[in-house]
From TrEMBL:
Cellular compartments annotated: Cell membrane; Membrane
PANTHER family attached to this UniProt entry: PHOSPHO-N-ACETYLMURAMOYL-PENTAPEPTIDE-TRANSFERASE (PTHR22926), PHOSPHO-N-ACETYLMURAMOYL-PENTAPEPTIDE-TRANSFERASE HOMOLOG (PTHR22926:SF5)
Family in the record: Belongs to the glycosyltransferase 4 family. MraY subfamily.
Phylogenetic lineage: Bacteria, Pseudomonadati, Pseudomonadota, Gammaproteobacteria, Pseudomonadales
Protein name (database record): Phospho-N-acetylmuramoyl-pentapeptide-transferase
Topology of this chain in the membrane: Multi-pass membrane protein
EC annotation from Swiss-Prot or TrEMBL: 2.7.8.13
The species this protein was found in: Stutzerimonas nitrititolerans
Name of the gene encoding the protein in the UniProt record: mraY
Record-level Gene Ontology MF annotations: transferase activity
Record's catalysed reaction(s): UDP-N-acetyl-alpha-D-muramoyl-L-alanyl-gamma-D-glutamyl-meso-2,6-diaminopimeloyl-D-alanyl-D-alanine + di-trans,octa-cis-undecaprenyl phosphate = di-trans,octa-cis-undecaprenyl diphospho-N-acetyl-alpha-D-muramoyl-L-alanyl-D-glutamyl-meso-2,6-diaminopimeloyl-D-alanyl-D-alanine + UMP
Pathway(s) annotated for this protein in UniProt: Cell wall biogenesis; peptidoglycan biosynthesis
Keyword annotations of the record: Cell cycle, Cell division, Cell membrane, Cell shape, Cell wall biogenesis/degradation, Magnesium, Membrane, Metal-binding, Peptidoglycan synthesis, Transferase, Transmembrane, Transmembrane helix
Cofactor dependency: Mg(2+)
Xref: InterPro entries: Glycosyl_transferase_4, PNAcMuramoyl-5peptid_Trfase, PNAcMuramoyl-5peptid_Trfase_CS
Amino acid sequence: MLLLLAEYLQQFHKGFAVFQYLTLRGILGVLTALILSLWMGPWLIRTLQLRQIGQAVRTDGPQSHLSKSGTPTMGGALILSAIAISTLLWADLSNRYVWVVLAVTLLFGAIGWVDDYRKVIEKNSRGLPSRWKYFWQSVFGLGAALFLYMTAQTPVETTLILPLLKNIEIPLGIGFVVLTYFVIVGSSNAVNLTDGLDGLAIMPTVMVGGGLGIFCYLSGNTNFAEYLLIPYVPGAGELIVFCGALIGAGLGFLWFNTYPAQVFMGDVGALALGAALGTIAVIVRQEVVLFIMGGVFVMETLSVMIQVASFKLTGKRVFRMAPIHHHFELKGWPEPRVIVRFWIITVILVLIGLATLKLR
């Protein structure tokens, strides 16, 4: 939106041409979303408190969590609002990737909003039934996958790229739709499972989003892509604005979500942010790198799968409680220790993911 205004004003002053630079608009995306989050945060928390939209806490979990009962939730609406406004202000709105990522984010956020609404407003402990949640995730995930497949302009956009192996590229054909579906839906649910402690999910999301933003910028530049032997995806660079907005909104939310949290993200935020990361990774053809950088999300998801499978097959539990962050709490780790150590792990994994840019 503001990019169009800057292009118009260029005829009066050449200085407005600076807004054509992706790096500048990416930075402005970060700052705009951060300011919006910090500005709207106190109002949102007060509104949620007045409407008594508070988190219900499981009684079978760590006893330290019982004090969190009633803490305002659905704070993910703050993140999504800041991301959407910042992206619409600074991104090139003629870019199809911007619209597909923004649409996936908001649509998955709508699923989470319905689930949270039924839990905290209608006092329905089941929220949105799992089968309907998965149904709508599948609809939106497949919709995004089909859109990306049908609008692909070059063969590389539907090719599987393996990091570290520069000469191996696997054309997926219609299999691209299947892979994209699993990446988007899987990452959405993985972030949602991770969102169980104060700040545990949002900071890894910010870090992974930043890492993917670098891939977007490099993949959208023909010179960098050729030098680094990564797929050149025309138009992908514009997603650095969305990634910047995600970083700014996430950091702004963390201001209120850090231990002890004043507000929780809720499914409205977790499902949306996970889907956004998955969609971006698919566009820049870095699904495997997302798996590496989002290792904490993968670990949380696998812990739940292992726990469920073990209990059904043997009647025994592998972990004291799943997802795995609760296991460490029940072992005696204070909540801040679990959170910060998971953050440290994510920093290392994101650096490993970025290292694949050169190790080929």
